[in-house]
Amino acid sequence: MDNSKLNGQKTYEYVFHYFSEQILSGKLKLNDKIPTEREIADKLGVSRNSIREVMHMLEITGLIECMQGSGNYVRCDPMEYMLKSVNMVMALMEIDASEIFNIRIGYEYAAVRLAIETAKPEELEEMRLILQKMDEPMSSKESAKLDAEFHHKLVSASHNRMLILYNSMLYNLMDQFIENFRTKILKNKMRAELLRRSHWALYHALTEKDLQAAMNAFDKHYRIVQDQLDKMMQKES
């Protein structure tokens, strides 16, 4: 092969960067069939073994799917790919629940601002039905599940795919913690009532497209949650 092409890179790095460039430039899209190992090897001037190694690495990370007898396809599952990456980063950086919570405030704040303009009538109706259910007598655990469902609907109503992806990703990362945390908050009747009111206030603001009222309801909601999280973190420290 012509080593001048590598610019000091190892062969597998050179091949990996080629694939990255193909995807980032849009030359390879989701569900596209990837050229054969021989075609790529000839194009890049590297061995088929080098191509095979990188293909295997991309398959492990979830970016491609190797189908026996059919070929290789771009099959990136965004959620699976990001979960694998973020899980490792969180473990290495020892990121705690309060940091995750602050991220959540940020993207839900953005979601509310967007949902004011983008929420569809049927989405608002789904939120209303969830809140109606939450008004009924139930256990704190059942209420926590409905609370989570309401917040999922809220973010979905933003119609921003990145916000929806981050929301799903963070819930998948910390689903057990979030469920337990919600359950603890809602066991306190006074806090549960304040959160119930803030949910309804947020819903009404969305239906009326009143951004300021929505932001006020959002702030009240998360001040209650933040206070409880601070107390929990202090006990654990």
TrEMBL record:
Single GO molecular function: DNA-binding transcription factor activity
Domain HTH gntR-type stretches: 9-77
Keywords: DNA-binding, Transcription, Transcription regulation
InterPro entries: GntR_C, TF_FadR/GntR_C, Tscrpt_reg_HTH_GntR, WH-like_DNA-bd_sf, WH_DNA-bd_sf
Record keyword Metal-binding present: no
Domain of life: Bacteria
Stated name of the protein: HTH gntR-type domain-containing protein
Organism: Eubacterium plexicaudatum ASF492
